[in-house]
Amino acid sequence: xxxxxxxxxxxxxxxxxxxxxxxxxxxxxxxxxxxxxxxxxxxxxxxxxxxxxxxxxxxxxxxxxxxxxxxxxxxxxxxxxxxxxxxxxxxxxxxxxxxxxxxxxxxxxxxxxxxxxxxxxxxxxxxxxxxxxxxxxxxxxxxxxxxxxxxxxxxxxxxxxxxxxxxxxxxxxxxxxxxxxxxxxxxxxxxxxxxxxxxxxxxxxxxxxxxxxxxxxxxxxxxxxxxxxxxxxxxxxxxxxxxxxxxxxxxxxxxxxxxxxxxxxxxxxxxxxxxxxxxxxxxxxxxxxxxxxxxxxxxxxxxxxxxxxxxxxxxxxxxxxxxxxxxxxxxxxxxxxxxxxxxxxxxxxxxxxxxxxxxxxxxxxxxxxxxxxxxxxxxxxxxxxxxxxxxxxxxxxxxxxxxxxxxxxxxxxxxxxxxxxxxxxxxxxxxxx
Amino acid sequence: xxxxxxxxxxxxxxxxxxxxxxxxxxxxxxxxxxxxxxxxxxxxxxxxxxxxxxxxxxxxxxxxxxxxxxxxxxxxxxxxxxxxxxxxxxxxxxxxxxxxxxxxxxxxxxxxxxxxxxxxxxxxxxxxxxxxxxxxxxxxxxxxxxxxxxxxxxxxxxxxxxxxxxxxxxxxxxxxxxxxxxxxxxxxxxxxxxxxxxxxx
Lengths: 433, 201
What we know:
The complex is a heterodimer of chains A (about 425) and B (about 200). With about 425 residues, chain A is of the alpha+beta class. Helices cover about 30% and strands about 30% of the residues of chain A. The radius of gyration of chain A is 33 Å and the shape is elongated. The two termini of chain A are about 65 Å apart. By secondary structure, chain B is mostly helical.
């Protein structure tokens, strides 16, 4: 049960909170008091001295604890709390170090009361002036870790001092799904990157053979081809380009079981796509649609951009953002020629209209359908009819998007994103004009 | 909770439950049917059982927000809160002592019960606070003195001629003196200043 830790010098650098201790008699003391007085009372009433003997140990314990007890009770103690991280992904193990100072010779017991969606693991209570707890955030969001109850007990365990420490909040990021392959556009912008383009350039992937012209490097001469044709031939290589990728996360509707709802899957899928494309040196941005408007982050490069994207998506959960229309987006948010990867349950008609609008403006799009819930099955005929109509509407929405040249793939959130995207990662994405 | 800690906690809980049950059985046998003995037995069984349940269910969390919960869950929360707030052990103690006093004077029997009751209280405290038995180390001397006084009390009870007369009056005086002394010792503890208003954060 105890989870004492080695002295942690870093914990000493954390400012401590001076907290007031509320002292009161313990249940143990009250029980001893009951036994002592009841036995003495019976001894007097029944004239049986052996009951006075029964009272003796209890009264002695109370008397021993009572002598000089008040002086040993600190009115305030200092508590230092330090989580090992202020940001973590879903399911990531986070440690929490706690330390009390100024408690004198009182025994300290820590009890962790985890907040919502925080899994405390096996150890929720520990003894000692210093302790370490571990916990795991289970769902994305800005989560309060919980509260820590601190109980001080004197040496005789007759008095208890109570105080409660509110633990800091933790930014929990959605755990990115598994995605290794990437969807590539047929036409890549003229910018250096890592994706082989359909034009010759200075890459490493073989593109073709052409006749030698002065200025070509000697090492690129293709000797077998030169021998066959009788003239010098040189190898050409595919140019390597990067692309702009804009992720569209639909936060307008959240259906399904908490933890695997449409919004959970949309955020995890978007995080996975952001990581995969950023690792491929693409510029990645994000647009989040929610009730009240749109929030966006322009495309950027680098690992830091991944955290900016996730932060942007998490902020969208907390309320209104800049912009009030689903239709108008600044050019910086949606650069021309960008690949748009959409994560949505396609339940909001305004969002679907926004997708159609983008497609009509010539953007190459791919929709990952994250809807994994359906209306409940009921016995009434009208309910069954409504359910059937709803299903047909959903099929119609997906059909209309496909007709516009927008591929729609379904992802259940369990398997790797590579599987539903496989048909589009094998060859460049060429949308119909 | 680590494996060793869990086993230790379960062992202490088991000891507390067994000691409680043992005290009830010890004070009941042989059964008597006078002086509200049946009611006292009911109270003792109820107190020990509820105390055991409280120790067993101590780790079960109660949701902070019980708004719009289903009825079975509300009943369960109410049960847990009742279990944790009522002083079951105190009731069981009084009932067990009452059962014991209904029997004929048998001082060694009462002394064994007294020792078992103290052990029951200590085990219950260890179980509810999650402390190891080492936490009782500072109290060993006092407990030894208490055991000596318990033996003396039993010995005094075994002395003959405790009938009407000078011996009986002397015994009452001694008992009254013990009561006054005990009250004097405990009074500072009872009248200690209460918790400051506001408390911790």
